[in-house]
């Protein structure tokens, strides 16, 4: 079980978001993982990436790009 998001985790997330052309300033990454984790667009247009607490981080990371694409396609609301 993941208890905190470290700089190493954030750098791995940024590697995915950078490749998609998402500005780091457009992201909100809470430092506490939750169950369930979620990726959503929040008011103001930023994308909140909450890491799943009960899943291996590397496994969770493999699905991040697809989840981000869905959020970007859906847009705000």
Keywords:
globular, 13% strand, 39% helix
Task: Give a quick rundown of the structure.
The chain is an alpha+beta fold.
Give your account of this protein's structure.
There is one protein chain. This protein has 77 residues and is α+β, with helices and mostly antiparallel strands. Helices cover 39% and strands 13% of the residues. Strand 2 (38-41) and strand 3 form a beta hairpin. The termini are far apart.
Helix fraction by DSSP (H/I, runs of at least 4): 25-40%
Report the structural category: alpha+beta
What portion of residues belong to β-strands?
5-15%
* Low-confidence runs of at least 5 consecutive residues: none
Largest sheet: 3 strands, mixed
Q: How many individual helices?
A: 3
For the residues shown, what is the average pLDDT?
Answer: 95
How many domains would you count in the coordinates? 1
Cα shape: globular
Number of strands: 3
Trace the largest sheet across and list its strands: 1-3-2
The termini sit apart by 31 Å
């Amino acid at each position: 079980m993941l208890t905190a998001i470290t700089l190493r985790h954030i750098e791995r997330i940024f590697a995915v978001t950078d490749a998609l052309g998402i500005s780091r300033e457009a992201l909100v990454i809470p430092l506490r993982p939750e169950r369930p984790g979620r990726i959503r667009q929040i008011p103001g247009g930023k994308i909140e990436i909450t890491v799943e607490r009960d899943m291996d981080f590397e496994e969770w990371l493999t699905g991040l790009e697809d989840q981000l694409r869905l959020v970007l396609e859906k847009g705000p609301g």
